[in-house]
From TrEMBL:
ATP binds at residues 105, 151, 179, 185, 199, 209. This is DM10 domain-containing protein. Its main location: other. The keyword Hydrolase applies. One of its GO terms (biological process) is UTP biosynthetic process. SUPFAM superfamilies: Nucleoside diphosphate kinase, NDK (SSF54919). Residues 9-97 form the DM10 domain. It is found in: Cell projection, Cilium; Cytoplasm, Cytoskeleton. It comes from Naegleria lovaniensis. One of its GO terms (cellular component) is axonemal microtubule. One of its GO terms (molecular function) is ATP binding. The active site is at 212 (pros-phosphohistidine intermediate), 363 (pros-phosphohistidine intermediate). Keywords: ATP-binding, Cell projection, Cytoplasm, Cytoskeleton, Hydrolase, Nucleotide-binding.
Length: 384
């Protein structure tokens, strides 16, 4: 037994979690209790007060995975941690993990792979992410505090000049940590005082400064709601033309390490990412999406369970060049079995980041005719 655990038999953290029951059409609430002594989890239904999960070990979910805003998967259900439900948990835990709202601005989107790589390497967890194009009204609303400033109109024109990527980032002291990483507003100053900051590396001038970060916890909450609680106001940017679908699989998203590298690998071959969003699929949605593989591969059930085992990042991949996008993306991904990929095509995504035939880092559309259909599943059906 680990001696550091002596005397902690009664140490228990309590969280309020919700699960969207798509059949019933509403959120179900549970108390989730985590016992550090034996690393077990227990869950109660808040409404009925009945046990939902008997106290048991659940090695896939560690204490470090539980913080406000996190999404964890238990029994194929995506549970969102919405609150710390007692003072002990709030005091010991709540003050540490926080989130901030980050944005890759229109001029930063060409550097999206490098910026996301940096985000992951600095230890942020991406809990939400969506590519969108701001309308004039939305940009004005987002930057309303600067309404009276001389640069307001230029700022709004810039923010509506192309797609942006909004991200909710989780870390200890997330607001300060992200603002330190992006550097000062003015890139000239950034290059002097923080030469390795994101703005020093990718910004052009005072307005075109590549990224945004909330300036307080209160504003992080307001800004995160602006993008991720907007009831359909934030449109996806998918084009549904000459496209293929790529999905970065749960083991990559939760380990954080390779998300940016995979995006860079896709962009290297003349392919563009024209829509992107982080999703947490339930078992029914995962099974619906993979329906064409039912009966075709003996691994169908395993693929479904893998796809709903944690957050995924879905992307519409297109190209401005006249290339066959589906075939090119398949080549970039490599053979489905990572072992085979390592032997035959060691530079491919699956060779580099795949673990086994199921956790093979990335899903991509197999057949040319299915490109639009697969993109529609995420960027049309799942938006409703
Ligand atoms: N003096 C200026 N001239 C031109 N544009 C400016 C100027 N000051 C700020 N901006 C633009 O307005 C944005 C919002 O300004 P703010 O003062 O809130 O800076 P910030 O907090 O560093 O940036 P952000 O809010 O985008 O994270 C800046 O990121 C920049 O794009």
């Amino acid at each position: 037994m680990d001696p550091s655990k002596f005397g902690k038999e009664s140490e228990r953290y309590a969280f309020l979690v919700t699960y969207y029951d798509s059949l019933a059409g509403f959120d179900r609430e549970y108390h989730l209790l985590y016992y550090t002594f034996d690393e077990t989890i227990e869950m109660y239904d808040v409404k009925t007060k009945r046990v939902f999960l008997k106290r048991s070990k659940y090695p896939e979910v560690a204490l470090k995975d539980l913080y406000k805003g996190a999404i964890v998967t238990i029994n194929s259900r995506q549970l969102k941690v919405t609150e710390y439900s007692d003072d002990f948990t709030k005091n010991n835990f709540g003050s540490k993990k926080k989130y901030t709202l980050a944005m890759i601005k229109p001029d930063g989107v060409v550097h999206m792979g490098e910026i996301i790589d940096r985000i992951c390497k600095e230890g942020f967890q991406i809990s939400k992410m969506k590519m969108t194009q701001l309308s004039v009204e939305l940009a004005q609303k987002f930057y309303a505090v600067h309404k009276e400033k001389s640069f307001y109109n230029t700022l709004v024109a810039y923010m509506t000049s192309g797609p942006i990527v909004a991200l909710e980032l989780v870390a200890e002291n997330a607001v300060a940590k992200w603002r330190e990483l992006i550097g000062p507003t003015d890139c000239v100053q950034a290059r002097q005082v923080a030469p390795n900051s994101i703005r020093a590396l990718f910004a052009t001038d005072k307005t075109h400064n590549a990224v945004h970060g909330s300036d307080s916890d209160e504003n992080a909450e307001i800004e995160s709601k602006f993008f991720f609680d907007s009831k359909g106001e934030i449109p996806a940017t998918a084009t549904f033309e000459n496209c293929s679908l790529a999905i970065i699989l749960p083991h990559i998203v939760s380990e954080k390490a390779a998300i940016g590298q995979i995006i860079l690998d896709i962009q290297k071959y003349g392919l563009d990412i024209s829509a992107l969003e982080l999703f947490s699929l339930g078992k029914t949605d995962a099974s619906d999406f993979l329906e064409v593989y039912r009966g075709v591969t003996p691994d169908f059930q395993k693929m479904v369970l893998n796809l709903c085992s944690g957050p995924i990042i879905a992307m519409e991949v297109t190209s401005k060049q006249s290339i066959d996008v589906v075939t090119t993306l398949r080549k970039v991904c490599g053979p489905p079995d990572p072992e085979l990929a390592q032997a035959l095509r060691p530079d491919t995504i699956r060779a580099k980041y795949g673990v086994d035939k199921i956790r093979n880092a990335i899903h991509c559309t197999d057949l040319e005719d299915d490109g639009v259909l697969e993109v529609e599943f995420f960027f049309n059906l799942m938006q409703q």
